[in-house]
Structure formats: C-alpha cells, structure tokens
Amino acid sequence: MTDIQIRLIDGRVMNATLDEKSAPITVANFLKLIDNGFYNGLIFHRVIPNFMIQGGGMDASLCPKDAKTIKGEFSANGVNNPIPHKVGTLSMARTNVMDSASSQFFICVEDCPFLDGQYATFGELSDEESIKVAIEISQVKTVRVGYYDDVPYDPIIIQSIVRK
C-alpha cells in the first residue's frame, strides 16, 4: 500500500491509498507519472454529480497530455481485481479498448457497482475530508466545451500529486 496526496491549486487536498496487490501494473504506472510530475497543472476535466470526477489527462485549455497505455487490470480483461467501485474508489479511465488506460483516472463519489469488473480500480480515498472534497468537486457548475461534456466552468486544477 502506498499513500499519496492529490493537491489542488486552491489548497484543498485528497489523501488516498493505492493498492499494489490488486492492480500492480496500474499502481506502478500511476506512481511513475507522479514521480515525473506528469499531473502537475492538469485538471479534473469531467465531473458528474452522484457519479464521479475524472482528471489526469488535460490542462485547463483542454489540451490533452498523453502517456503510454497499460494493460487494463479488471475481470472483463482477465485480471482478478477485487476492489469495488464505491464512494472514494480510484479507477483508471479508458476508451472502449480494454488496454487503453494511460494517465486519466476517476474517483467515484457514489457507489458504482455497474463499473465493477469493467475498469481497473487501484486505490481509495483514505479519509472523510478527502471524500468530501471529491463530492464538492462533482457538484460544481459545468459546461460543454467543443465535444467535451461536464467540464467544470471554473477549472479544478491539480497542483501536484505526491507520495506521502
């Protein structure tokens, strides 16, 4: 287990614990990106109340920042990953291609059992204050920008993600 902290530019933080045992490839990739400062200045670009907040792939201008893709560690892709999608769970975003996850991740702000076995869960927020911050983010005013829906009107910028 590895503890991390997602620091937002507005001073809020979300503490999380990553589970290397359940998702070793995903956690190793995430930590490599953290150690390289990949997430610094990126945003939560998609937020949906009662569902999740997604970030880690775009800057405030919605310019994508690409990273190498990894194997999807979830049961529909042949990998036993027991972490359920519940409030506070961290999971990798992907396209319809099972091995397309790279840097984008999402945090569930409600229990989402319909996602179990379909996306690589790899950790969870570790305290109530962190869950409160994620839920607050999910409730901000959003707009459509180009073909992106659910974009926060005021950018939610990640200052950094660091190991604790």
Tags for this model:
164 residues, alpha+beta, 8-stranded antiparallel β-barrel, two-stranded antiparallel sheet, 2 helices, 14% helix
Structure characterization notes:
It contains 2 helices and 10 strands, in the order E-E-H-E-E-E-E-E-H-E-E-E. By secondary structure, the chain is of the alpha+beta class. The protein has an 8-stranded antiparallel beta barrel. The chain starts with a strand and ends with a strand.
Could you outline the blueprint of secondary structure elements for this entry?
Blueprint: E1 2-8, E2 13-18, H1 24-35, E3 43-48, E4 52-55, E5 89-92, E6 105-108, E7 121-125, H2 128-138, E8 142-145, E9 148-152, E10 156-163
Short overview:
The protein is an alpha+beta fold and 164 residues long.
- Which spans of ≥5 residues are poorly predicted at pLDDT below 50? none
Question: How would a textbook summarize the main sheet?
Answer: 8 strands, antiparallel, barrel
Give the topology string: H per helix, E per strand: EEHEEEEEHEEE
Q: Could you tell me the number of beta strands? A: 10
Helix/strand structural class: alpha+beta
Going across the major beta sheet, what is the strand order?
Answer: 1-2-7-5-6-4-3-10
Principal-axis shape: globular
Tally of helical runs: 2
Please give the radius of gyration in angstroms: 14 Å
What is the share of helical residues? 10-25%
Proportion of beta-strand residues: 25-35%
